[in-house]
Amino acid sequence: RFAPSPTGGLHLGGVRTVLFNYLFAKKHGGDFIVRIEDTDQTRFVEGAEEYIFNCLEWCGLVPDESVLHGGEHAPYRQSERKEIYRQYAEQLVKDGHAYYAFDTPEELDAMRERLKATGSNSLQYDHSIRMQMNNSLRLLPHETQALLDKGTPYVIRIKVPAHEFISFTDMIRGDIEFDTNNVDDKVLLKADGMPTYHLAVVVDDHLMKISHAFRGEEWLPSAPVHILLWKHLFGLDAMPQWAHLPLILKPDGNGKLSKRDGDRLGFPVYAMDWTDPKRKELTKGFKEIGFLPEAFINLLAVLGWNDGTEQEVFSLEELVEKFSIEKVHKGGAKFDFEKAKWFNHEWIKRLPVISYQLIVKEHLGANGIAVTDDNYLSKVMELVKDRCTLLNDFYTQASFFFQSPASIDTDSIKPKWDDKKKLFFAELVRAYQLTSVWEHGELEREFKEIASVNQLKPGELMLPFRIMLVGGKFGPGVFDIAAMISKEETIKRIEHTLSLIG
RNA sequence: GCCGCGUUGGUCAAGGGGUUAAGACGCCUCCCUUUCACGGAGGAAUCACGGGUUCGAAUCCCGUACGUGGUACCA
Predict the structure, then answer these.
(1) Which of A199, A255, A421, A478 has its CA 20 to 30 A from that of A144?
(2) Is the CB of A444 under 7 A from strand B?
(3) Structure confidence by residue, pLDDT tens digits, A185-209
(4) Could you give the CA distance from residue A212 to residue A22 in angstroms, rounded to a whole number?
């Protein structure tokens, strides 16, 4: 059983953590479960679980066991598991591996101030300082009991041994060693009775029988605490294998990529649109901005991993087949939105249009184009897909197949416009009206024939013709367009522009 | 400050003692296309620094620098 821990929301790093875990689990034939580790109830937002589940579904990374409902390991919410965590914390105290601490926030501040004043290079609540603090280690048993009986607020802290080395083997980084003298006595159970992440992951991993756990690199420094917990609670042999994934960094400057960077630089960092129910703020998603899930998964997979070949475009199935955890990088990678768009472009080109036609239809609909003929839409998409990077580019690249251009770039025609050309188009309209075979080869033939009769170069006439049909200097071949939009529409657009130019 | 992790073009990266140091994105030039793209051919651009080890170092070792994460009753 595998458990990536996307903490907080589902941003790029979170999805990638889940993705790598998914690939690893599928490759090795294990169950894949996703657990959202967020023990802070004050930050919990209604709908976040469903939202994350929807994102995973869009990405095609559906867990083997629903994290939302029932199952043999329910309940899942931290608040509903409060008593379970407390039980383990109390057990640690009883065994001498943890202790009650009654220090108030003010006392903790004072302690740090004192340490700072002495020039100490550690401000931690650890072995060097704990015997000077207000806790059950220093207090006599009856003093502690008295405080407890009085209902004095307390936390339970782990008692980290001094002068020991703790090591473990990370699936990506290999052997890592920590000196316990640098590890502080982390709070395990908070004054409100809720566990901290440290206690919660260890207890949950054990109870939910997790064999491999994937999480972000930021958790590496707290690994010794978790190892100690495993040692005292369930035995080191039962401890899951860990993979600490590299961070995804800001494209510019340095630091971990955050939601704010996306807003600032104009790209999404979430998989799908997310509206914060409290602040009513909308955060843009890759899906809504016009990404294909295949591209989204692909770009995430190769950010910090590659299979050692030149291949860059991978489907999810290929990734499962070729993924290997050893090839995941140790260093963080900067996110590059340009490259992200390139992946989307690649997937738009190589996927059959039918597989994303529905979404394109929605994008067109959102722009006021109601598609009635799916077959027609397929043909249009086939014609323009090479020039679409995002799904909503289909609107700008193909709107003229469905409606007359909103504006005509007559400025690009006028400078070289003359009576000869005017005559040509009048003649072209007459010829096209009589055409019985409305097909691009025939249209082109007639066009060129009339041009040569009038002693005009077809090249000089193609651009005006294009602008008449499309509105500007873009789009597929002009005769393809004319053939698609029908005789009536073509003639209508020519005459309309002619009237504009005069 | 202390501790952990990292460092190959602007970005993603291959390579793990002998290579002309792959490839991709982006950028530039040209070809194709009587539009814009797609496609094709080229180009500029890289081993953080200093010491070792070695016949030989991007590659191994040690320092330094830089970056990043942690150092919370956040996750």
Answers:
(1) A199
(2) no
(3) 999 999 999 999 999 999 999 999 9
(4) 11
CA-to-C1' distance for A336 and B27, Å? 15
pLDDT at site A138 = 96
Residue type, A378: S
Q: Output the pLDDT for position A5.
A: 53
Distances (CA, A) of A157 to A74, A82, A135, A163, A221: 27, 16, 9, 18, 17
Spatial CB neighbours of A14, under 8 Å, sequence gap ≥ 6: A6, A7, A8
Share of chain A above pLDDT 70, in %: 96
Radius of gyration of chain A (CA): 32
What does the H/E/C string look like for A170-217? ECCCEEEEEEHHHCCCCEEECCCCCECHHHHHHHHHHHCCCCEEEEEH
pLDDT confidence band for A39 (50 / 70 / 90): low
In A 313-352, which Cβ lie closer than 7 Å to strand B? 327, 329-334, 336, 338-339, 342, 349
With a threshold of 0.80, does the pTM exceed it?
A: yes
Per-residue CA distances from A481 to A402, A403, A440, A457, A475 (Å): 11, 12, 8, 21, 8
At A53, the amino acid letter reads F
| Amino acid A283: pLDDT | 86
The pLDDT score that the predictor gives to residue A38 is 72
Q: Which two tokens stand for residue A244?
A: 């600490």
Question: Looking at the predicted structure, is the pLDDT value of residue A474 above 90?
Answer: yes
The model's confidence at residue A223, banded by pLDDT at 50, 70 and 90, is very high
Distance CA A470, CA A407 (A): 9
- Cα–Cα distance for residue pair A389/A135, rounded to 1 Å: 61
pLDDT number for residue A74:
86
Question: Residue A263, SS3?
Answer: helix
Q: d(Cα A182, Cα A165) in Å, to the nearest integer?
A: 10
The CB-side HSE value for A406 (13 A sphere, CA atoms) comes to: 7
Residue nearest to nucleotide B71 (CA to C1'): A124
Taking the CB of residue A355, how many other CB atoms lie within 10 A of it?
Answer: 11
Q: How far is the CA of A457 from the C1' of B30 (A)?
A: 25
Question: Which nucleotides on strand B sit less than 7 A from a protein beta carbon?
Answer: 1-8, 10-15, 22-26, 34-38, 67-75
For the CA of A336 and the C1' of B25, the distance in angstroms is: 8
Q: Which two tokens stand for residue A177?
A: 């060693």
Residue whose CA lies closest to nucleotide B70 C1': A221
Q: Which helix (H) or strand (E) holds A283?
A: strand A282-283
Known catalytic residues of A?
259
**Tokens describing residue A460:** 């000089």
Spatial distance from the CA of A246 to the C1' of B13 (Å): 15
Asked whether residue A260's C-beta has any atom of DNA/RNA strand B within 7 A, the reply is no
At residue A36 the predicted structure's pLDDT band, cuts being 50, 70 and 90, is confident
Euclidean distance between CA atoms A270 and A48, whole angstroms: 13
